[in-house]
Amino acid sequence: MERAEKFLFKLVIVQFLFLILTQIFFHQLNFLPEVKQLTKYEGVTKNTITDILETLKGK
After folding, report:
1. Spatial separation of the C-alpha atoms in residues 36 and 32, rounded to whole Å
2. HSE (CB half, 13 Å, CA atoms) of 28?
3. CA of 4: how far to CAs of 1, 13, 40, in Å?
4. DSSP characters for 4-37?
5. Distance (Å, rounded) from C-alpha 14 to C-alpha 45?
6. What is the rounded radius of gyration, in angstroms, for the C-alpha atoms of the chain?
């Protein structure tokens, strides 16, 4: 059982490192700027309370 736990722990560490590297590529190095434009178009980056309330009211 201990061997499986070590493997899972290493897997979590590797996944975390890939997550950090991906975030750096997309946000800091402006890799694939189309994705950044798409999130602005979809309104993902602008989460305000008024937008949420308007959505809940049935805009």
Report:
1. 7
2. 6
3. 5, 14, 42
4. HHHHHHHHHHHHHHHHHHHHIIIIIS--SHHHHH
5. 27
6. 19
pLDDT tens readout for residues 10-57: 999 999 999 999 888 777 777 777 766 766 665 555 555 555 555 555
Residue type, 56: L
Q: Is the pTM of this model over 0.85?
A: no
Residue 57 structure tokens: 């009211």
Minimal CA–CA distance to 43: which of 32, 29, 54?
A: 54
- Cα separation, 21 vs 15, whole angstroms: 10
As given in the structure block, the two tokens for residue 6 are 């070590």
